[in-house]
Design goal:
The complex is a heterodimer of chains A (225) and B (101).
Chain A (H helix, E strand, L loop, with lengths): L2 H11 L1 H20 L4 H10 L3 H13 L3 H11 L2 H10 L6 H9 L3 H6 L8 H25 L5 H6 L1 H16 L7 H13 L5 H19 L6
Chain B lengths: L1 H19 L13 H18 L10 H16 L4 H19 L1
Helix pairs in contact in B: 3-4
Classes of the chains: A mainly alpha (225), B mainly alpha (101).
Chain lengths: 225, 101
């Protein structure tokens, strides 16, 4: 298939992420505006930070008047899990540096997991997925700022499950024919349940990924592939 | 104004630099050793940590997230199309939130 065909296939494949991102980014826009944060700040954060949990945290901290340096440290720690995910993503990309950098910038929890089924990542396809996700995140932010109050609350809350339905489906397909690997997500679920009670979510997720992957590396064998 | 600019710039760098560093690593040629298995295990570990316990706060009640999650899991086992799975799970969860009032 041509590059542009694979790119379009990626965009279509990103629909589940878009379904999850729109309500979250609309909520972000609404909450941000109601907290008295200027629209240009909210849009800039979606454009340049592009990390859901981190942006919600930033709204809180702006509203509380926390010093910028503390915010920067906090969001850095919260998003450091992307470093670990990036190592895994990049190990499956065989392409030039500009492609690799672009795919790094477009990587989020959701685009990473959607690509986790690929043994070797096709850059054009991945760019399609990432552009769909990024576009919906920005559009949702703007929509939330402009007219977020219109979205009925019940549908907005119901859509909270969308991202999880995506993760669950991906988990089920990843484990198909590789049932023995179920111990890896089991370890990270248990550790994250424990750590998230005492640590900020980003750090808790980071530690749990490391422990889960460590357990997978220990159990080893030929179970992967 | 300048505080906002400084904070946005700093937070962008703090988020994007860790995202970008792995692009400079050379891991494609790793042999099938411990590190390779570690990297291969990251997606599954990430999925686990992203689902639990986050799903239990959906709809503001453990039960709504649990039922919605099990429903979606069941549909995934039945190899339901991903988008349809998301739509049906959303409808179910919206309904559960509605009847809870």
């Amino acid at each position: 298939m041509e590059n542009s065909g694979r790119f379009r296939r990626g965009i279509r494949r990103s629909f589940p992420i878009i379904a999850g991102y729109l309500p979250i980014s609309i909520a972000y826009g609404v909450i941000g505006i109601r907290s008295g944060i200027p629209a240009w700040v909210l849009v800039s954060m979606s454009l340049f930070i592009y990390a859901g949990a981190g942006q919600f945290m930033a709204i809180n901290l702006f509203a509380l008047g926390v010093a910028p340096l503390e915010m920067i440290l906090g969001i850095g720690v919260l998003n450091f899990r992307h470093f670990v995910m990036g190592l895994s993503l990049q190990s499956r990309i065989k392409s030039n540096l500009p492609d690799r950098l672009l795919l790094s910038l477009g990587m989020t929890d959701e685009t990473f997991t959607l690509l986790s089924l690929e043994r070797e990542i096709d850059p054009a396809y991945a760019k399609g997925i990432m552009l769909g996700a990024y576009g919906s995140w920005i559009s949702g932010t703007v929509a939330g700022i402009l007219f977020g109050n219109i979205l009925p609350n019940i549908i907005a809350s119901g859509l909270e499950i969308a991202i999880f339905a995506l993760f669950i489906s991906l988990l089920v397909s990843s484990l198909e024919d590789k049932g023995a690997l179920i111990s890896i997500p089991a370890v990270s679920m248990i550790t994250n349940s424990i750590f998230s009670r005492m640590l900020p979510s980003g750090i808790s997720i980071l530690l749990s990924i490391l422990l889960g992957a460590f357990s997978g590396a220990l159990s080893g064998g030929k179970k992967h592939v | 104004m300048s505080d906002y600019l400084f904070a946005i710039l700093g937070m962008s760098l703090a988020t994007q630099i860790p995202r970008l560093i792995p692009a400079f690593t050379k891991t494609e040629s790793l042999k099938d050793g411990f590190l390779k298995r570690f990297l291969d295990s990251i997606p599954l570990a990430a999925l686990g940590a992203l689902i639990v316990p986050g799903i239990f706060s959906v709809g503001g009640s453990i039960w709504i997230g649990l039922i919605g999650g099990l429903f979606s899991f069941f549909l995934a086992l039945k190899k339901m199309n991903l988008m349809l799975n998301i739509i049906l799970s959303t409808v179910l969860v919206s309904f559960l939130i509605y009847i809870r009032g």
